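Forum > Structural Biology > Help requests

Title: Can anyone predict the 3D structure of Twin-arginine translocation signal domain-containing protein?

Hi all, first post here. I have the sequence for Twin-arginine translocation signal domain-containing protein but no way to get a structure on my laptop. I'd be grateful if someone could post the structure tokens.
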Amino acid sequence: MDRRTFLYGSLAGVAAVTVGISVVPTAAPNSTLTDQQSWIIQALVPVVLAGTQSPQQLQQLAPRLVEAISQTIQTLPPNTRAQLDELLGLLDNRVALLALTGSTVPLAQRQPQQLTQILNQWRHHFLDTIKLAYVGLKEPIFAAYWGDPSHWSEFNYQAPSMGSSS
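Reply #1:
Sure, ran it for you. Structure tokens for Twin-arginine translocation signal domain-containing protein below:
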């Protein structure tokens, strides 16, 4: 084995171990969101809900939605919670973020236009896993927003009555 092959092999091995350690969850999923996970979701709220309210209103609403998402996550089955926790963990990991977005800049520090572009790329990606990541980020935000009855009046939606009206 020549020196160059040894060095390339060692570099590849170190990279594989580094990515493997950051990708494989080693603990049970969190019952609540970490600060980093909350920041990621807060950054995505105005992008995912663009058009429902003004960007300033969505920024103000984001912390309340993060709390609602955290409560919703606690009701999910353990397997689904683990997958969502893994996804948010990957988005907090710089190596995984580089692979998923092409940059190591944290999502919470990016401009809304950049986040919109990333989500659109994921939405139309050729890998189903990336499309699933897109849905995994979008759906909890939609559920938290539209699950709040105070937002229903914007579209004149009336909740169905549960009792008989006879």
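The radius of gyration is 20 Å. The helical segments are 3-23, 35-48, 55-75, 78-92, 94-101, 112-123, 128-146.
Shout if anything looks off.
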